[in-house]
Amino acid sequence: MPELPYRTQNVDVPGGALHAAMWGESGPLILCCHGITANHMSFLALARALAGRYRLLAVDHRGRGQSRDIDGPW
User: Fold this and answer.
1) What is the mean pLDDT of each run of 10 residues along the chain (74 residues)?
2) Phi/psi at 38 (5° precision)
3) 38-59: string of b/e by CB count within 10 Å (b at 16+)?
4) Strand stretches in the chain, DSSP E
5) 6-13 and 16-23: which strand pairing?
6) Quick one: pLDDT at residue 72?
7) Which helix H or strand E contains 45, and what residues bound it?
8) Which residues contact 10 (CB under 8 A, 6 or more apart)?
9) Please, are residues 5 and 21 in contact by the beta-carbon 8 Å criterion?
10) Residue 60 phi/psi, 5° resolution?
11) What's the pTM?
């Protein structure tokens, strides 16, 4: 399987920084929103399945994943 392009970035918001991740380099963008107990890595299998055709953007919501230290409200 070819390497899947993956990059991350922190986005400053009130209370801290949200952690965002993107898979892919070209194609239509899909915004992925995880459930309450998940994080951005929940979409890795989807990113692999759509590799080369779509880009996926996923953000760790406040209190989850690498955005876990941001103050509420959640």
Assistant:
1) 86 92 96 94 96 96 90 70
2) -110, -170
3) ebbebbeeebeebbeebbbbbb
4) 6-13, 16-23, 29-32, 55-59
5) antiparallel
6) 72
7) helix 44-49
8) 17, 18, 19, 20, 66
9) no
10) -75, 115
11) 0.85
CA distance linking residue 56 with residue 71, whole number of Å: 26
Q: Among positive and negative, which fits the CA dihedral 72, 36, 69, 55? A: negative
* Distance, CA of 47 to CA of 28 (rounded, Å): 13
Sheet holding 6-13, edge to edge: 6-13, 16-23, 55-59, 29-32
Q: Are residues 32 and 12 in contact, defined by beta-carbon separation less than 8 angstroms?
A: no
Report how far residue 63's alpha carbon sits from residue 43's, in angstroms, rounded to the nearest whole number. Answer: 18
Q: What three-state secondary structure class fits 39? A: coil
